[in-house]
Amino acid sequence: MFEEIYREARQRVVGLTMGLSAGELGRTVPACPEWTVHQVVAHLSGAASDLVSGRMEGAPSDEWTARHVAERENVPVEELLEEWNVAGDKIGEMPRIPFQLAMDTITHEADLRAALGRERLPDTVWQPTLVWMTPRRLTGVTVKTEFGDLGDGPITLEVEGYELWRAFFGRRSRRQMESWNWSGPAPIDAIPFFPPRESDLVE
Fold first, then answer.
1. Which among 168, 66, 171 has a CA at the least distance from the CA of 112?
2. Cα-based angle 34, 6, 189 (whole degrees, multiple of 5)
3. Which H/E stretch holds residue 156?
4. How many Cβ atoms sit within 10 Å of the Cβ of residue 100?
5. 197 in helix, strand or coil?
């Protein structure tokens, strides 16, 4: 599943960002408040190149991702996309693509779509990963979404699937997650892989 997710996400992001104007490439990505569109692409390209070359010291720390951005600050986006395509093809030949790489890529695709005012990531892209992650992250919770019930715990949560999926990757604040329809004590700390945002993010 993760090999297909990564390959298709890379193709979509290349199509999304190729030919953008300088103004669009310099646009701040609200989900990544310290990065522009260009810098998000630099990170995606850098992560793929690092994986292929084995340059994984410190991954996936902030320092590791910051290096991708710093090293490619003045590289045109067309070259970044070519670098990513070359590395991505080599990753496609690997026997197994890391879960983290696939999830990072579709998460940043969603970030870019929101920043550029494009349509939301299609349900068919993120919904299978929501189904896979929810019972693993939220043990003890039955999550009721538009896709049906996920998990079988005594606490129930009624929430839009996309909201929960974005929250898994730190794109929602604690206040936003607490405002969801919980039947009992909300295990907020069990949701995000990364610390939740300090400010609300509405997409």
1. 171
2. 55
3. strand 155-158
4. 13
5. strand
Distances from the Cα of 72 to the Cαs of 15, 84, 97, in angstroms? 20, 12, 24
Residue 16: CB atoms within 10 A of its CB come to: 16
**What secondary structure letter does DSSP report for 122?**
P
CB within 8 A of 37, min separation 6: which ones?
Answer: 17, 20, 24, 25, 26, 27, 29, 112, 115, 116
- CA 143 to chain CA centroid, nearest Å: 21
Positive or negative CA dihedral for 69, 73, 77, 80?
negative
User: pLDDT by residue for the chain (203 residues), tens digit each?
Assistant: 788 899 999 999 999 999 999 999 999 999 998 999 999 999 999 999 999 998 888 888 889 999 999 999 999 999 999 999 999 889 888 877 778 899 999 999 999 999 999 999 999 999 999 999 999 999 999 999 999 999 999 999 999 999 999 999 999 999 999 999 999 999 999 999 988 999 999 99
